């Protein structure tokens, strides 16, 4: 007996069901956005192609099976698509969460350490946080210093001092300093603009010292008319004779960009170097420092400090009042101006080199000076004694030009 051959269409039906399931699963995994119509069209394409003159299957049962399989495949495709869409949403949410999570910033400056201590409970909220911050900043900075008081009341156009210079009691040269002019600001008066005063100084060697080395030092300084803060300074030094192996001419141009930042152009003969650095607010140069010291009216024991820039060297100047003092001998020009020993007051000071953190360098030499001044409106600078050069340097007033009238 010959076994009945199965109908080829019956064999295709189960395979079509498997193909439909596989195709639907792949379709759901490939794209979660396909709709039911597109899934049904692809599913019908996976079965047997229709006959040219009519529908493919003739059996009702076979037709029901095909319809049931198609509906089941479409439902499974929708279920897989929904699951895929839900999974994609969860993945996007996780991605957004990972992107929105807090991250440590990249630190380009020294880290800040937390200091564990009981905060002050007097203020509350932001006030408490600002009053007692929880961070200990390890970076070193200049210690807070008192900003010098304005001294422009002692700066008067036309006033000029001329000194005789002595080294170890021997004549060594001449030094002079004076306020040469007032420069108005083209922008107008304060607060639109601010004028400047020009202070000029000059020192030359003579006598025995000039036989060994000849030197001429010129300083041109401009200061603000309201605060006395230095705007610019130019120091020109010309040397000849012994000790001139390094350079014969040196020009140091200093621009005070703001009140705590400077730009220096140092030219030695034909070689030039530019550097910038941060300095304490209202740092003086040599001429403005002299004008500031002259304006001080300190009682006995009263002390004040500031900073001065000597070329490229930053120094701290400490001045203390010593009360009345006797100047012997009294300069003849002072006697002619009616000055007596009861009008003379002594100021003592120390010049110390400091590092970039404002700490005094103990490995460097400290210089001292003594200034004899008069109180009152004139504030005459009668004599200065210092050990800043070889031996004891002494300046004695030789000539005084009063301020210009008006």
Automatic annotation (TrEMBL):
Q: What is its EC number?
A: 1.1.1.262
User: Per the record, where are the segments of Low complexity compositional bias?
Assistant: 83-95
| Principal EC category | oxidoreductase
- Quote the biased-composition stretches of kind Basic and acidic residues, using this chain's numbering: 1-21, 58-68
Q: What keywords are annotated for this sequence in UniProt? A: Oxidoreductase
Instruction: Give the Gene Ontology MF terms in alphabetical order.
Output: 4-hydroxythreonine-4-phosphate dehydrogenase activity
Q: Which Pfam families does this one have?
A: DUF3108
Q: Where is this region: Disordered?
A: 1-28, 43-131
Protein name as it appears in the record = 4-hydroxythreonine-4-phosphate dehydrogenase
Which taxonomic lineage is given here? Bacteria, Pseudomonadati, Myxococcota, Polyangia, Nannocystales
